[in-house]
Amino acid sequence: MPKIHFSSPLDDVTVEVRPGTPILEAAEDCGAQVGHSCGGVCACSTCHVWVRKGLESLSEQQDEEIDRLDMAFDVKPNSRLGCQACVADEDLEVWITEESLKAYMDENPDVRRKLEAEGKWPPKK
After folding, report:
1. Which of 107, 80, 83 is nearest to 95 (CA)?
2. For 65-115, what is each residue's pLDDT tens digit?
3. Domains in the chain, ordered, with CATH?
């Protein structure tokens, strides 16, 4: 089974997933801090990630995802929405964007308050 390695300024997490699993679902399963304000239904861009390895193996982008990525910040050629990009049979390296990490903290204020108390949030640039 393929593995996804999630990275952010706060954490690194690796999880093994079944082919066909959306990146966002894998992130939720392993506790990677990928935001999803709309609940993962392609109605926002907060699950925006950069795929640093394995991009070509992901499911093909559909028009709806391309349109939503137009709303995202700092879009790059390797940008995908975690709710739309499904894993195939290759390992992935995924960077959680600042936009997504901030959305995660907004959606999880208890986690944010804990990290603030530890001096880990916001992350140092």
Report:
1. 80
2. 999 999 999 999 999 999 999 999 999 999 999 999 999 999 999 999 999
3. 3-117 (3.10.20.30)
